[in-house]
Amino acid sequence: MEHFPVELSPYEQKNMCIEFNAHQLGEAVFPAGWVDFTNEHQQIFRTLIASQALRIDFNKEAPFIGRSKELKILHQCLEKAQKSQSQYIMLQGEIGIGKNRLIQFFFQQLPPNYTRTSIQVGTGIQFPYWIFKEILKDLMVQFLKTDSLKETDFTALVVQMPEMALSLEILKRDLLGWGIQERITDPLQEKERLFVAIKEFLIYFAARLDVLLLGILSIDQIEKNSMELLQFLLTNIQDSKILWIFSYVKDSFNLFNSVECEILAIARFSENENQQFVEALFPDNDFPAHFSQALFKQSKGLPLFTQEILSNLVLQQQSIFQDSRGWHIRSTLDLATFPTSIERLIRHQLESLEEIRLILEIASVIGQEFDFHLLALLAPYSEIQLDQQINKLIGQRIIKEKNIDLFEFDHPL
Predict the structure, then answer these.
(1) Given 191, 249, 254, 359, which is the most exposed site by the fewest CB atoms within 10 A?
(2) Cβ-contact 202, 194 below 8 angstroms
(3) What CA–CA distances, in Å, run from 116 to 58, 315, 376?
(4) What's the whole-number mean pLDDT along residues 69-92?
């Protein structure tokens, strides 16, 4: 039996988990040959599957609950965009509150003839303009009705968009890096040429459609080159059939002054909505009322935390189980214990911030609260660099500003 390959990336490992020939073992789903895995590999599998347990076992994605007011506003903006009135929507909310799930659900409910694409901004290393590289590639793939974009596909694009021949050549060469590269004599001129080519392509492409929907998720993580390009596009594409939708963490980001954005603040679930969420995840359950109340108190109405807690109770503690009659809770359940899967979620968030890990370590030694000036004395950075890293931590909701130059960790972990 070949053991679980530790050297694979987390993405590849997760896909392998999903593709395994799974079978039931207790109340959890494990791959065939589970008993032949080493303890280390078993733990890797548990870690990978824990946050996705409900998705793998019950649903491909989290159920969608509520948000009727937000959906109504999204549809109103969509109607305006169809009339060549460019629209910009900012979905604002805490980590795990369901901003990206709302965009996903909205896109899924639209007719198939509506062209849409979205991209999730990560916290790792980002190459300049990679967001727009992926967005434009996806739009071209949808237009050509192919599986992936190749350099030779640009011939077909030029045939179908002859007016865009020059812009397409610039995009192919300067954005995607295909073809013969020109010698750079004036970087600013080259950047302007690329920006204009992307703008002209989007305007032309949208004009041929009923409407074009572009989603950029977690935009507060966007790298500076893509941000500069995005601000240029929003300033210079005002009367086009494009609906822009962005999501970002609450109170962490100021995006644009050049355009009028519709800001939708996404609220936490009410206790009733949280109960509906649980019912959708666990149909035919006999969970007692006190369990729902305790769950709501523990998750604080954040859908992601609710799902993480339930994943933990199914897989790690095995306190929730299913039989022929439905879902049940064991009498030994103690919901007061902080779920390890949530702790892992926060620790993963910290691990994605390697460049500011030292700041976190020094701050944690100082205590739950720490002073900027004391941190500046201990950290090997200038005050300007330290201020930039502090802002990143605030943006990630790892710390928050309590007073002038006084900060505290946003969570006791």
Answers:
(1) 254
(2) no
(3) 27, 36, 46
(4) 93
DSSP 3-state assignment of 246?
strand
pLDDT digits (tens, 9 = 90+) for 228-261: 899 899 989 988 999 999 998 866 556 666 677 8
| 49 pLDDT more than 70 | no
CA–CA distances in Å: residue 177 to residues 6, 100, 130, 135, 172:
33, 30, 12, 15, 6
Close Cβ partners of 411 (under 8 Å, ≥ 6 residues apart): 346, 398
Q: What is the pLDDT of residues 14-28, one digit of tens each?
A: 344 333 333 333 334
Residue 402 identity: K
Which residues does residue 263 pair with via DSSP β-bridges, in sequence order?
Answer: 90
E runs forming strands in 229-388: 242-249, 262-265, 320-323, 326-329, 369-371
**pLDDT tens digits for range 218-231:** 888 788 888 889 98
CA separation (Å) from 226 to 132, 206, 237, 385? 7, 20, 16, 22
Q: Could you tell me if residue 301 is left (phi over 0), alpha (psi between -120 and 50 degrees) or otherwise beta?
A: left
